[in-house]
Design goal:
By secondary structure, the chain is an all-alpha fold. It has one domain. It is built from 15 helices and 2 strands. Helix 2 packs antiparallel against helix 12 and helix 5 runs antiparallel to helix 10. The protein is globular. The N and C termini lie close together (about 5 Å). About 40% of the residues are buried.
Length: about 350
């Protein structure tokens, strides 16, 4: 197992060790009894072993707080489907435009990208646009709760799609919770009749989750070593280019209030939220971040209730508990399985 950066020994550390040797009656320079990292006050992180201090603890707390703020923003973004009179594609067009403009300073002064890179980003941008368009359409057809909870099944799609990629194995432990999540989705949907617009909204939400699962897997294969926020810029910029021919007239005719909402959606609920989420991953680790991300529907549903007075039914809440419970249990057990796997 590889460890991170070696710990630097300060003068204070040296004096402390020398004092310990004298107490243990050891000659100068001799090594004392080997202590475990836990006994030494050293803890493990994804970057290696380190000695916690107030600064690092503060970064972890700030990262954890930023994670929850980011996930809350992700969930609350769905409310714009209810407050804007624009079509789903027009909302995506405005969102990607303002998000790309907010992220543009990250790529200023860099070398122009190669055609092969732009081709890969074009695929990812198309997936991003399709995912967001179906996400907003799902909420538009049904409710914020149904749209978010049906979309929340995307980790199940990832589990079943991932083995199709070279070098990936099927993860039975995570897949075992699929029936629980599917029962939850069945309860979230008001009926099984396609004539019911809320049912159609739930099915479109499942499609949005499927597209998001494809986006996750495509990012792993196509993104390469590009920084996450730079990647977000190119995906948003090219998603905007893709949908612009279908939305230009709607954007030009948008009111000042609608443009202000699109600006807020793109800058705060997209660019800022992605920055906070990535910073949180660096502070607390990907496993913890993935668990926090399961709260996205919770924040969105609470926001819809408090802002729009759109509270879900008891049946929808019960279904949501099963969906999120199944996804959360699969994530926890999947993370533990990966930690136990040989490296």
């Amino acid at each position: 197992m590889r460890f991170g950066r070696a710990l630097r020994k300060t003068a204070a550390d040296a004096r402390h060790e020398e004092g310990a040797r004298r107490r243990d009656h050891l000659p100068p320079g001799a090594a004392g009894p080997r202590k475990t990292p836990l006994e030494s006050g050293i803890i493990a992180s994804s970057g290696g072993w380190y000695v916690p201090d107030e600064a690092s603890s503060g970064r972890v707390r700030a990262g954890r707080t930023g994670l929850h703020v980011a996930v809350a923003l992700f969930g609350l973004a769905g409310l714009f489907a209810e407050t804007l009179s624009l079509t789903s594609l027009e909302i995506v067009s405005g969102r990607t435009l303002f998000a790309a403009l907010a992220l543009a300073p990250l790529v200023l002064g860099r070398r122009p990208p190669k055609p092969a890179f732009l081709a890969r980003m074009l695929v990812l941008g198309a997936l991003l646009a399709a995912h967001w368009a179906t996400f907003f359409l799902a909420i538009r057809l049904s409710t914020v709760a149904i749209g978010l909870l049906s979309f929340a099944l995307f980790p199940v799609f990832v589990v079943f799609l991932e083995p199709l990629l070279p070098g990936e194995r099927f993860r039975w432990i995570e897949a075992s919770f699929t029936p629980v999540a599917l029962i939850g989705v069945f309860l979230v949907l008001p009926s099984i009749r396609l004539e019911d617009p809320w049912t159609r909204g739930g099915l479109v939400g499942l499609l949005s989750g499927f597209l998001f699962a494809l986006l996750i897997l495509a990012n792993r294969r196509l993104a390469g070593d590009v920084a996450p926020l730079e990647l977000a810029f190119w995906q948003n910029a090219l998603a905007f280019v893709i949908v612009l021919p279908f939305t230009a007239r709607g954007l030009v005719g948008a009111s000042g209030s609608e443009l202000a909402q699109l600006l807020l959606l793109g800058v705060v609920f997209t660019a800022l939220s992605h920055g906070l989420f990535i910073r949180g991953i660096h502070a607390v680790g990907a496993s913890h971040a993935s668990l926090v991300a399961t709260l996205e529907p919770v924040y969105g549903i609470l926001g819809a209730g408090l802002i729009l007075a759109q509270w879900p039914s008891v049946k929808t809440v019960l279904g949501g508990v099963l969906v999120l419970g199944g996804v959360l249990a699969a994530s926890i057990l999947g993370s533990r399985q990966k930690e136990k796997a040989p490296r």
